[in-house]
Amino acid sequence: MKVFGSTSKKVLLSFGALGVAAGIASLGTFATFTSTTSASQTVASGTVTIALGSTGAATNRLTVNASNLVPGDTVQRAFDLSNTGSENLASIALTTTASPTSLLDSDATSGLQMVIDKCALPWVETGVSPAFTYTCVPGASSVIASRGVIGSGLTMAGLGALTSGGSDHLRVTLTLPSATNNTFQGLTSTISYSFLGTQRAGTNQ
Omega of the bond prior to 138 within 30 degrees of 0, cis? Predict the structure, then answer.
């Protein structure tokens, strides 16, 4: 009987110890200090956009065809180029291609020669379509010097359109050289003009 009583007492003491341990664990779970803070930030990307003037208007005559050229003839077409994006540009380059193609464009010496000039004010257009001519007051400056009509990534110097909101009044002149020979008779080329604006260098914002 004494032994039995002694065992019961030990069992009760063991249960009491477990209760104390559970209480301590409970205090550790719910007595945690915390603190939070937060912030938000809006980030938006810019836009790089260049645009030509209205097709067919005096601000974009690049789609007006020319025919029956002979050596010594010139073709003048005015067009505006604008930066309508939100960002300044590092450069604007011109690539010209031909399809269909012929000696008129593929012969860089005897074929069509191209010059692009700019005017501070809109070009003064005279003549009857398609035989337009243009004058600039007070005077024009060169954007691309005389060269064969076909080229890739030709840098267009000194453009106002490099700046967001800026624009330029430009004129392309194509000339069939006076020394062009009889092998150029009856040929056709379709010249396409593609302008590429490249974003400014990345910086801290």
Answer: yes
- In 3D, which of 116, 121, 123 has the Cα closest to residue 151? 116
99: how many CB neighbours lie within 10 A of its CB? Answer: 9
Provide the 8-state DSSP code for 1: -
Tokens of 73: 């003839």
In the block, tokens 């001519």 appear at 133
Give the number of other CB atoms < 10 A from CB of residue 193: 17
* CA-based nearest residue to 149, from 125, 177, 123, 122: 177
This model's pTM is above 0.85 = no
Token duo for residue 104: 């008129």
- Which contiguous run of DSSP H or E holds residue 8? helix 2-30
Q: What single DSSP character describes residue 121?
A: S
d(CA 186, CA 197): 36
127 Cβ contact partners less than 8 Å away, ≥ 6 residues apart: 133
Q: What Rg do the C-alpha atoms of the chain give, in angstroms?
A: 39
Pair 117, 143: CB distance under 8 Å: yes
Give the helix/strand (H/E) hosting 51. Answer: strand 50-52
Give the separation between CA 78 and CA 171, rounded to whole angstroms.
4
pLDDT tens column, 18-77:
454 445 455 555 678 999 999 999 999 999 999 999 998 999 999 999 999 999 999 999
**Structure-token pair, residue 58:** 């005096």
